[in-house]
Amino acid sequence: MDTRAGSAVQPPLSQAVGYVIVVVLGLIVAGVMMFITRLLNRTIGEDNKKTEMFMTANRTVRTGLTASAVVSSWLWSTALLGSSLVGYNYGVAGPFWFAAGCSPMIVFFALLGVSCKRKIPEAHTSLEVVRVRYGRVAHVVFLVLCLVNNIFACANMLLGASAVISAMTGMHVIAATFLLPLGVSLYTFVGGIKATFLTDYFHTVVIVLIACYFSIKAFTYSEVGSIGQLYDLVRAASARNPVSGNAQGTYLTMTSKDAILFGIIHICGNFGLVIMDTSYFIKAFAASPAAVVPGYTIGGIAYFAIPWALGTVMSSVAVGLENNPVFPTYPRRMSTSEVSSGLVLPYSALTIAGPGGAAAVVLITFMAVTSTLSAQVIAVSSIISFDIYREYFNRDASDAQIIRWSHVGVVGFVLFSAAFSTMLYYVGADLQWTLYMLGVVTCPGIFPMAFTVLWRRQTTLAAILSPILGLATGLAVWLGCAYRFGGSVTVATTGEVLPCVYGTVASAFSPIAYSVILTFALGKPQAYDWAQFKNERLALGKIDSDSASPSDQEDTHVASGENTRPSKDNELKRWARIATFWSVATFLGHWVIWPLPMYGSHYVFGKKFFTAWVVVAIIWLWLTLLMVIFYPLIDGGIEQIGQVFKQSFGKKTEKGESAADAANGDGIKNAHTEVKAG
């Protein structure tokens, strides 16, 4: 057991439960996903021995599954544990700023995704886009930045998840760290990106179901009883333990200095985590053109409710019942190490639902970390296979060779991530430390990467140097502020709020200045022709369907042989305009119009307002549940399940072939059909 995380609280579950969930359940999920992958191959021709299927699912994933996958990609164990952590530290403002720091960049990525679909439709990773425009030196720079991003992202997930599983079951924290990725590596090894989409769906449904259960169970627990009673408990806790930096020292206000500083760290760091995470680009490339913008927009807005509702309810339970004998740590408050290890959520669940609640938290932690790890693993494996092996060692690599190196990437990255997380654990880092400092190392490439797709003027020199200078600036500011405010540079001082805020902001925004100065002051600004992207043949097979939208397919049938490229471009430009609108609207709504007036007003929640706040959050959460369960099924899922059942029983085509043979024999036709249906 992790003694740092809570030696005074005995694990409510046995080690056997921990190993069953982490190992046995992981292997079961992996086995089911591998079976489904083989079934899809046998019945409808989805052959994961083909690179385009393994890496991009033939670029035909529909809106419903894309939206579900987007929610899952951001549904880290950190989101579940961290939203309750900041709620405990800062009050109701904490979970709101956590949620507001996640949704805007997901929606913004719809703009990047559709821009890539329009300008370079054959790409597999964002790094290929960088190499095509700027060459190999820039490619190597961004390759390193993306790998650093993935490594720290995985460490953040594993540190929080392993600490919680250890505290709830007594399982050794290092055993949990190495065993958690086991099932992930197996089904990603076999199923590729389509297995990631399918497990995303399954895991997200389970996580949101349990989150909805906790949102109701909290108010049926006798010591809470109602939202009004929870308000009274939190108000009394504010009187006992006033919060420094909050209006009137209360948990019941959006006027929280430390919460808004955390919000700045979080939104900057998350922009880095999204834009520098190649898994988001891979999922955008895997989606059909008509699915990218609505999928990412719906997913981003739906996601907001999960950390907001779950974090608000469960942190309020912890704050309100901490002085009650029913709480695990009674008669003392939770220690700093317990809070920073992410134990607010499991302790609250244990309080209101007993050992079953603890088991539910272990389950959703496992589901969250394995689902998001699968996206990280497939992202890194794509970098190793496409951006290292294919680019620098074998330009004529076959499907089999690329997939072999993808498998090497899967296994190698899983082992390295577990080892790196173990190293951080032994030097004293925990969930809160990685949550706060993450932006310092993930942000330098945000704007240079976005400029690569959206700004034709950025020069090669600016693309190469601006993220390097940005990283150096961010690290210098972060460590300098830690020394200035803390008197020394240690794990503790570098995890404080102010050094992380200044370091993250410097890391995120200094590359804008560096890029603009280097572009206009040194050399001649580019006037890049986006059409040059299409001169590079990146796909290992023909993927014309990827560049077409459903309406374009109809145009093709109406006027066979007619050049439809202008209409295809116009359709994707229309989606880009829609993505731009929703990106701006989401940012203004979640970050400006809604929270900032509440911050400036110093308003303290009354009972009626708190009740409305919680009710709206819970309704939003339940709508998210309906979306993640039913939208993928309605949007093609039921149809594909029906096809699998029909073809599993050997239904014959008109030519007497099995349906699977027909699907395997005409992959391009199948891709066109799926895009049209989407």
From TrEMBL:
GO molecular function: spermidine transmembrane transporter activity; urea transmembrane transporter activity
This protein's UniProt keywords: Membrane, Transmembrane, Transmembrane helix, Transport
Family annotation (PROSITE patterns): NA_SOLUT_SYMP_3
Domain of life: Eukaryota
Gene Ontology cellular component annotations, sorted alphabetically: plasma membrane
Subcellular location: Membrane
Annotated Basic and acidic residues bias: 669-678
Pfam families, per the entry: SSF (PF00474)
Transmembrane helix among keywords: yes
Membrane spanning residue stretches: 16-40, 60-76, 96-116, 137-159, 171-190, 197-216, 259-277, 284-306, 358-384, 405-427, 433-454, 461-485, 505-523, 575-593, 613-634
Region feature (Disordered): 544-567, 656-678
Entry keyword Ion transport: no
NCBIfam families: sss
Protein's UniProt name: Urea active transporter
Lineage: Eukaryota, Fungi, Dikarya, Ascomycota, Pezizomycotina
